[in-house]
Amino acid sequence: MPGFLLGDVFPNFEAETTIGKIKLHDFLGNSWGVLFSHPKDFTPVCTTELACAAKISDEFKKRGVKMIALSIDSVEDHRSWSEDVMAFNSETTGSPLPFPIIADDKRELSLQLGMLDPDEKDKDGVPLTARCVFVIGPDKRLKLSILYPATTGRNFNELLRVIDSLQLTAQKKVATPVDWKPGDKVMVIPSLSDAEAAALFPSGVTTKEVPSGKKYLRYTQP
Ligand code: BEZ
C-alpha cells in the first residue's frame, strides 16, 4: 500500500527520466499531473497503453494535465521502447513520445509509491510494477489513485473522464454520477442544504422522488 492517501501531498521525488533528471513538483509546476506506471519495457499490453496515451496526449494538454510514465527499466531502454511505441501508432520515424518516462531500474520509487504487483514477477522472481495511476492536483495533493494488476490494461479515455470530473468538482460543490461525461447533469453534494443549493445553482435543482421520501437525489446543470 502506498504510504499516502487521497489529499496527501504527493512525494516530491527526484528521478532520472527520458528528458533528464527531474524533481516531480518542479516538473508539474502549477499544472495538474498524471503519473502512470508500467510493469516493464518492451511488453505487449504496456506498449498498447503507452501508444494510446501518446495518441490522446493533446486531450491531457487541453485540460492542463502534464503526463509522466514510469517503468522499471533504464533511460536507454525507455528511449528505445519509445520508438517502438510511436511506430505502433504509425507515427513517422523520429516522432518523440510526447511525455517523459521515469527510469526506476532499482525499483526504489515503485517501492516508495506502493506500485509493486506481488503476483507478477520477472524471470528472476522479482516483482514487476502494477499499473498505477496517480492524478495530482495543482496543489500537489493526490486527487485520485487507481491500481490495476499487470495483466489488465487501463482505459486512458476513462482517465480523461475522471480528470474532467476532478477538475469540475474542485471548482463547484457538485458530484458526478455514474458514467457522467461533460455536459451531463451533475448531483448536488449531500452536505449542501436545499437553500444553499438554490443559491449556488441559479439554473435550478431538480429532485428525483424515491420510495423513502428522502430528497437526496438532487440534480443540477453546473
Ligand atoms: C504486458 O505489458 O503485456 C505485461 C507485462 C507484465 C505482465 C503481463 C503483461
Describe this structure in words.
The structure is a single chain. The strands form four sheets. A five-stranded mixed beta sheet has the order 5-4-3-8-9. A four-stranded antiparallel beta sheet has the order 10-11-13-12, covered by helices on one side. 29% of the residues lie in helices and 26% in strands. The chain has two domains: 141 residues, Glutaredoxin, CATH 3.40.30.10; 49 residues, Antioxidant, Horf6, Chain A, domain 2 (2-Layer Sandwich). The chain has 222 residues and is of the alpha+beta class. The model has no long low-confidence stretch (mean pLDDT 95). It has seven helices and 13 strands. α2 packs across α4. The radius of gyration is 20 Å and the shape is elongated. Benzoic acid binds next to α2. The site of benzoic acid has 10 residues, from α2.
Structure summarized in a few sentences:
With 222 residues, the chain is an alpha+beta fold.
